[in-house]
Specification:
There is one protein chain. This protein is an alpha+beta fold. The protein is about 30% helix and about 35% strand. It has four helices and nine strands; from the N terminus they run αααββββββαβββ. Strands 5-6-7-8-9 form a five-stranded antiparallel beta sheet. Strands 1-4 form a two-stranded antiparallel sheet. Helix 1 (about 10-25) packs antiparallel against helix 3. The longest helix has 25 residues, at about 35-60.
């Protein structure tokens, strides 16, 4: 009798590498503008704020972005981060200040209960960048979403099939996003959103 055994070594090796990278403690470094005490203190504050923002984002999204990036890097060969800013999550107010003998009013931005930056690792197979010598000019992302998910984000969207019937809530639809410095565009099943 012969028994075939399939060894899961490649799968285990990728998972081991991802686990090691995900378990690491990472730091964000912000260099000071100058070697003055004030600039060093500002850089330290920005570092702490960005690190807090990073960990808060991971807690809110319930995803380990580093683990996701490690997996995409090991399996897909490249990494894509998507960073979105949600203005509704930021509280703005004015306050008076006195600094170095100068008085004035400045706008203070406070992060509300939720993180204003939403950072996610994206599947590189769904990303189509337009790369020029100056850098990335535009990006197209194409992926599947459920009709329920699209309707939750865009309740007024007419989500009908080519035959004129409504999509079932669990039915997948093609979602396309286009981004550049000036414009963004969303298409659902080829229709502008």
């Amino acid at each position: 009798d012969v028994e075939n055994v399939v060894v899961g070594t490649p799968h285990h090796e990728v998972n081991l590498a991802c686990d090691i990278l995900a378990a690491g403690k990472y730091n964000i470094v912000v260099p000071p503008r100058a070697e003055t005490k004030k600039d060093k203190e500002r850089a330290d504050k920005v570092e702490r704020w960005l690190l807090g923002l990073w960990y808060r984002n991971q807690k809110e999204t319930r995803r380990n972005v580093i683990a996701d990036l490690a997996w995409h890097g090991a399996v897909r060969g490249w990494l894509v981060l998507k960073v979105l800013y949600d203005q509704k999550r930021v509280e703005r107010k004015s306050e008076e200040y006195e600094e170095d003998g100068k008085k004035g009013t400045r706008e203070v931005v406070a992060v509300g209960r939720r993180c204003p930056l939403i950072i996610t690792a994206r599947n590189p197979y769904h990303i189509f960048p337009e790369i020029t010598p100056e850098g990335v000019r535009s990006v197209v992302e194409i992926y599947k979403r459920t009709a329920r998910d699209v309707k939750a984000s865009w309740p007024r969207l007419d989500l009908t099939t080519p035959e004129g019937t409504q999509y079932e809530p669990d039915q997948e639809v093609e979602w396309v996003e286009y981004w550049d410095e000036k414009y963004r565009c969303y298409l659902c099943e080829g229709k502008p959103v």
